Amino acid sequence: MNAINNSYYRISYRDCVNTMAKLVCVKCGEEVDVPVHCGKEMHQEGDQLVCWMGRACGHQDVPQHCGAHMEVKS
Predict the structure, then answer these.
(1) 35 near 49, Cβ under 8 Å?
(2) Number of compact structural domains in the chain
(3) Per residue in 14-71, pLDDT tens?
(4) 23: buried, middle or exposed (CB in 10 Å: 19+, 13-18, 0-12)?
(5) What's the pLDDT score for residue 14?
(6) Rounded to whole angstroms, how far apart are CA atoms 29 and 71?
(7) Range of the domain at 29
(8) Which of 56, 24, 54 is nearest to 42 (CA)?
(9) Can you give the pLDDT at residue 32?
């Protein structure tokens, strides 16, 4: 896909692609996609992943890898 160019903005296809946040192992670097709930990525609150609609809608423990909690990387 070609870039859009004019005097107001310059957008490439790469800018329009929705990139998923990743959960990353702090020990080995393994990456997995952040879970989705209600159509959007969950966000981290402490040691929980929480739905964007709130904890009452959906939550889960942050996964572990290599014996440690993974961290969210945007």
Answers:
(1) yes
(2) 1
(3) 444 556 899 999 999 999 999 999 999 999 999 999 999 999 999 999 999 999 999 9
(4) buried
(5) 47
(6) 10
(7) 4-73
(8) 54
(9) 95
* pLDDT for position 18: 55
The token pair at 45 is: 């609150």
- Give residue 74's pLDDT: 78
33-64 as b/e, with b when 16 or more CB fall inside 10 Å?
ebeebeeebbebeeeebbbeeeeeebeeebee
Task: Give residue for tokens 């870039």.
Answer: 3
- Please say whether the beta carbons of 21 and 74 come within 8 A: yes
